[in-house]
Amino acid sequence: MKQTESAASGVTPLLADVNSLEGQSSRGRATVSGAVFNICTTMVGAGIMSIPATIKVLGIVPGFVAIFMIAFLVEVTVEFLLRYTQSGKATTYAGIMAESFGSLGSIAVQICVMITNLGCLIIYLIIIGDVLCGNQSGGTMHLGILQEWFGIHWWNSRAYVILFVVAFIMLPLVLLPHMNSLRHSSAISILLALVFIAISSAMAMYALWKGKTQKMRLYPDFANQVSIFDLFTAISVLVTGFGFHVNIHPIRAELGRPSDMSYSIKISLAICIAIYFSIGFFGYMLFGDSIMADILVNFDQNSNSAVGQLVNDVVRLSYAMHLALVFPVMNFSLRANIDELLFAKKPALARDTMRFVILTCVLLAVTYIIAIAIPNIWYFFQFLGSTTVVCLSFIFPGAIVLRDVHGISTRKDKVMAILVIILAIVTSTIAIATSFWSS
To answer: Which of 95, 209, 293, 424 could form a Cys-Cys staple with 394, CB 3.0–4.6 A?
Structure first.
């Protein structure tokens, strides 16, 4: 019944909706743990390596406050989306925007999702290529893990290695038709992030025991290195790290009880707060003011000894594996939104095997070709992605509340929506202007 009504309103669910899942056995339904793993994996992507540098800019105390406050605002906007999903007929993010702002609203969401997720997928492949095959910057050749282990050969060049990863690791995962099917790979990706935390914390504790830890600042160093505008740029990194709104509806639709979604979100946010602060704190303790924007560079610079080289290889390899497992989760919502845009009147994507396979393979091929042909394009997507994530995470949910087509928003909701939108616009504008000014 719900799917028929959605189709009539021009909003077609991509996967089986909540009502269609009610007839499934409890064994076939998604669980809270599966939802938590998938939500956490959506948040903990490539930006995890930038957290220590962000903490260096903000300082320990403001850094923790910023992480906590952003997580709080994210939970607020996610609850906005869940309430309007429950009250309306739409079962997708674009569908909710269509109910509030018509076709222009849904197209705006779909374009933002495409820019954000396609950019993420391309960046993931580029980083995996850099880790495994190396790269060349500033006239210096940095060897990848495979070149260090086996020497330079045709078979461990970037094009062949990434093709192997795409064909034998990513393709089987992206062909899974339901988000819940990715729960095990998502659990492994979070485990790999925890491995990185364990290595960083162990090294930091060892350095502390030896009296070799770096000086850490509790607050920003405005006197020497940090300007007030740098704080906004650092906060935008954290905002990107908490953006998971694009996968709310696919995950919610597969839960045995959609009401479990709020519980899953709270657990996921708590886990990610712990992950981000742990990585930021121990990474900053270990490398101090020498911390780079990508902490992998610091590990690479400290790999002169045999033990240092082993640690460097383990960190880089686990990071590449982590991104390979994040890839299918981000691909899921990208594929869903493209299908919703191009085939709005067609049956649910999971029920059309031919369309599902063709769209999946085409997206994977396009992502691979762009990552190989234009490796520097990631700077472009990094800039656009920081803008679109703000729209998806804060501006669009706030606008839905202010529009209030279902008449369910309270005065408190609208005040919070206005506050969120203003903070998002101001922070994003200053961060973009600062990036342009410093480039």
So the answer is: 424
> What's the CA gap between 307 and 291, in Å, rounded?
20
Q: Which amino acid is at 287?
A: F
**% of the chain residues with pLDDT over 70:** 88
| pLDDT-wise least confident of 13-17, 116-120, 409-413 | 13-17
Rounded Cα–Cα distance for residues 17 and 34 (Å): 17
Q: Are the beta carbons of 126 and 158 closer than 8 angstroms?
A: no
Distances (CA, A) of 408 to 131, 180, 255, 405: 49, 30, 24, 8
Residues 291 and 59 sit within 8 Å (Cβ to Cβ): no
Instruction: Please state the φ and ψ torsions of residue 22, each to the nearest 5 degrees.
Output: -70, -25
Closest listed residue to residue 125, CA positions, set 150, 88, 159: 159
> 32 to each of 261, 267, 268, 389, how far by Cα in Å?
8, 9, 10, 25
Contact 371, 129 (CB under 8 A): yes
Rounded to an integer, what distance in angstroms lies between the CA atom of residue 126 and that of residue 113? 20
Q: What is the chain's mean pLDDT, rounded?
A: 86
Does pLDDT of 400 surpass 90? yes
Report the pLDDT averaged over residues 156-161: 92
Which structure tokens are listed for 8? 């009539």
Lowest mean pLDDT among 88-102, 219-233, 330-344: 219-233
HSE-CB of 67 using CA atoms within 13 angstroms: 26
Residue 389's identity, in one-letter code, is V
Q: Does residue 83 or residue 292 have the better pLDDT?
A: 83
Is residue 399 over pLDDT 90?
A: yes
Q: Using alpha carbons, list the distances in angstroms from residue 432 to 316, 427, 428, 436.
A: 29, 9, 6, 6
Answer for the pair 316, 145: CB distance below 8 angstroms, yes or no: yes
- Give CA torsion, residues 323, 197, 308, 287, to 10 deg: 110
